[in-house]
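Exercise: predict the fold of this chain.
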Amino acid sequence: MRDAKQLFQATKKYTQENVLLSWWHVASTIFILASLLTLACVGQFLPLRIIASILAGFVTTRLFVLYHDFQHHSILKGSKAAQAIFYIFGVVTMNPPSIWNRTHNHHHKNNAKTFGASIGSYPLMTIESYQRSSAKEKIQYAASRHPLTIALGYITIFFYGMCLRSLLTNPKRHLDSAFALVVHLGLIAYLALCSWEMVLLGVLVPSTIASALGAYLFYAQHNFPGVKIREREEWNYIFAALHSSSYMKMNPVMHWFSANIGYHHVHHLNARIPFYRLPEAMAGIEELQSPPTTTLNPVDIHRCLRLKLWNVEQAKLVTFREAAA
């Protein structure tokens, strides 16, 4: 296996962007999403409107990953038009750029470190630190990793975590969080004047689906059976990419909806690789071809969600029941 410098160097040729292809992905995704939302809001056939609303949630997830890539400067770097488009998207979806960049950059620099702030990541305690915690801290910790918290990410992660909490913590630094709340709630209020169906099918259903799917993908990419973590002084990017970031096997349709975010170990090795080149990078770099793997199979989802605490002695994630034993 190549050393860290050589391996990172091998990824650089995959960071070259095809600007026209990037614009095609962005424009086509926006067109599809706009068409689905229009059908969901003003269509005449209710079953078709419901299907369009659900699909809009999945396409919103795709556009979110494109937004994520733009913030990493892996697509359309320096484009004022793209900056305007993704700023609007971030605000409307309660994911404003200021808080997203701060938390996500922290995540990339600290993922898979045993100790440290859980900024931009799901918190992780060792068995010992959990046992020493107060009852309130245990409840808060359990709630933060609970499946309902992930499923209700629209409220727990985006409305509260990304917007309301950041605004209350540092209002001057995150004024766009207030703007995002005003815009999102204003959109709901405007649609409510038209009909409750437009609110439900045009905003609430797509947002709930996109947030839940995005929240789970982010969780399972770093909380899976076999994940490895290290103490801060022993940590490096290569270790975090190859041993602490999963490859999620999906069918081609889900890879499209998720914009290849399942190739997460490749992304963590070099975040400047455009999403449409991640499969190519995995195929071309031998060290990336045997990653820790999970899927969207219900059995694998259950295996990931039940993991709660880090067992230092066994060097693995365990359930609350296993920790108690």
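Check your answer against the key: Residues 46-71 form the longest helix (26 residues).
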